[in-house]
Amino acid sequence: MAGYYKVELEALARLSAQLGECGDTMRSAMKQLKDIGPEGSGYAELEEACDAFQNKWGYGIGLIADATSGVTEGLSETRKVYETLEEQIAEAFTVSGTADGK
Q1: Domain map of the chain by residue range?
Q2: Axis crossing angle, helix 9-36 with helix 44-93, rounded to the nearest 10
Q3: Is the pTM of this model over 0.70?
């Protein structure tokens, strides 16, 4: 079926998993910076930099991580729909017991 539209179901599954990991990684990194916070590293400049970064970027990175979760869920649902459609199409072509429908 060269030249026809084809959905790469496994690629969608991998992308969904990778996006989920990215969201988790963003949240984890922000938590670690928050835990260091204004105290904890022993270095005033590092503590100030972590605190400044958290203040400027914490909210936005949280929104990005949340959006990533939404996209991940959407990709998962999209994959399920395409998989179901492919199964239904395959069944339609094999109704009479042959691959070409004759």
Answers
A1: 9-93
A2: 160
A3: no
